[in-house]
Specification:
- It is a single chain.
- The chain is mainly alpha-helical.
- It has 15 helices and 2 strands.
- A two-stranded antiparallel sheet has the order 1-2.
- Helix 5 runs parallel beside helix 7 and helix 6 runs antiparallel to helix 7.
- The protein is globular and about 65 Å long.
């Protein structure tokens, strides 16, 4: 009884400090916020860098975009602030989390690859882990002393730095080899891996977790990243097209340029509405890896057609080639739309999808 009461008091104290120990808060809300931090830094830096490369040398406009492309250097700090914001951290904890994110993103280890030592960092996942722990501890000590302005940031930074020193080398090692395995396996078995990656990453994009953060964490690249980008596009374009009769043009914009995650509530009611876009991803993925060999890297691979980031990421990696341009038009737009519509119409005729099943409150 005493143990139960003590546990209750601890939970009450943590709740009072805003520490809820909620898996949803950490792995859905915080990860989604991390994706926003990635978008505001690494992704925007990539987009501006792509624009910069189109401008001739010695031009002041190129210098301007060169400056903007440096946004990627703030990736760790932006992840830290974004996660702290999602956890409703007090101001001092939130600002300190930016520094912790910088620690976690840059700390890492050295791996031996083909006889050469290569430095690798823990990247976004390292920042994610360090910031989560540091922010929750920082919230506990926040405003608990008269010298809060010293104690809170010092504690948050100290905890984040300690977690980084202990865990980031292991995280960096694991993420490097996981990314290497996925990228190498896709080169080795492009057809089967094209299906798996396209379907899995596309599904993650529609789930209430961040496919962009996932792709950034594992360091997906090359044709594996291209398959991921195509799979995400299939989900977004697919849902935009097959739900047109329910949601009209507002739905096309909201899902095609926004996110297919809007359909999660309807998917829970009728999971079969997820089948057309997922089948489209299973078809376009291996076409990407085997025929067009589209390439994309990291966070861009997990964004799909959201703000056209996926296609821009492919152009950034491959340049303006026939394969990249025609591949984007065919695999990111035309085929996902046509295939999803074909499958959905068959399912509507069979009565598996009914009118109103994909209606959104727009």
């Amino acid at each position: 009884m005493e143990k139960s009461e003590r546990g209750g008091r601890i939970r009450a104290f943590l709740n009072k400090k805003g520490v809820t120990l909620s898996p949803k808060l950490y792995f859905v809300d915080a990860m989604s916020a991390m994706a926003l931090g990635l978008f505001a830094s690494l992704l925007m830096g990539t987009i501006f860098g792509t624009v910069r490369d189109l401008i001739p040398e010695g031009n002041v406009v190129r210098e301007y975009f060169e400056l903007l492309s440096g946004a990627g250097g703030a990736t760790g700090a932006m992840i830290g602030v974004a996660i702290a914001y999602s956890l409703k951290a007090p101001p001092l904890v939130m600002f300190s989390a930016g520094v912790v994110g910088m620690f976690g993103n840059s700390l890492g280890t050295t791996v031996l690859f083909e006889g050469v030592n290569k430095s690798v960092s823990a990247g976004p996942l390292g920042a994610f882990i360090c910031v989560l722990v540091a922010v929750e501890v920082g919230k506990i000590v926040s405003k608990s002393t008269k010298v809060d302005i010293l104690v809170t940031p010092a504690t948050t930074l100290a905890v984040g730095g300690l977690v980084g020193m202990l865990l980031c080398p292991l995280v960096a090692w694991a993420m490097y080899w996981l990314g290497y395995f996925i990228n190498y396996a896709t080169e080795l078995l492009p057809f089967f891996m094209g299906i798996i990656i396209s379907v899995v990453v596309g599904i993650v994009l529609t789930l209430p977790i961040s496919s962009a953060a996932l792709c950034a964490m594992i360091g997906i690249s090359g044709i594996a990243g291209g398959a991921a980008a195509v799979g995400c596009c299939a989900q977004m374009v697919g849902f935009a097209v097959i739900s047109f009769r329910e949601n009209r043009w507002g739905g096309v914009v909201a899902q095609g340029l926004g996110t297919s995650m809007l359909q999660m509530g309807n998917i829970v009611k009728n999971p079969l509405i997820w089948v057309p876009a997922t089948l489209a991803a299973a078809i376009t993925g291996p076409i990407s890896t085997c025929l067009f060999r589209l390439e994309c890297t990291g966070v861009s691979a997990g964004m799909g057609t959201c703000g056209l980031v996926g296609p821009i990421g492919i152009i950034s990696d491959m340049g303006w080639t026939f394969n990249s341009v025609f591949g984007i038009i065919l695999l990111c737009i035309i085929l996902p739309a046509a295939l999803s519509l074909l499958f959905s119409e068959v399912m509507r005729r069979l009565g598996w999808i009914k009118s109103g099943d994909m209606k959104l409150d727009l």
